[in-house]
Amino acid sequence: MGMQGEDIQGGEPRGLPLNIKILPEHLRGLGYTTKLIGKWHVGYHTPQHTPLHRGFDSFLGFYNSHVSYHEYKYSYQVHILIVKKL
Q: Cα separation of 73 and 86, whole Å?
């Protein structure tokens, strides 16, 4: 499994195919709690394409590209959204 080609930009109507079950979905089925910290860089144009609908119990990070974790002057000004499924 993989995605080739250009990065998925914000608002593009594409993402990781929903018919492909990814690792956190398998792990959740086995009773594990899952968390994603970092970039979700595989599409988010519908709620079903976001981490909380793809097997993650919580997510801390960015949905899109072009955010650097290493540039302190930029990163400290970014508002971070913590999302947890109820």
A: 34
Q: How far apart are CA 85 and CA 50, in angstroms?
A: 11
Residue 34 DSSP SS3? coil
pLDDT mean over 22-44: 91
- Annotated domain spans of the chain: 1-85
DSSP state of 52: G
Q: Where does the pLDDT of residue 13 fall: very low under 50, low under 70, confident under 90, or very high at 90 and above?
A: confident
Beta strand spans in 1-86 (E): 35-39, 58-62, 82-84
Question: Are β-strands 58-62 and 35-39 bridged in parallel, bridged antiparallel, or unpaired?
Answer: parallel
| Letter string b/e over residues 27-40, b meaning 16 or more CB atoms within 10 A of that residue's CB | eeeeeeebebeeeb
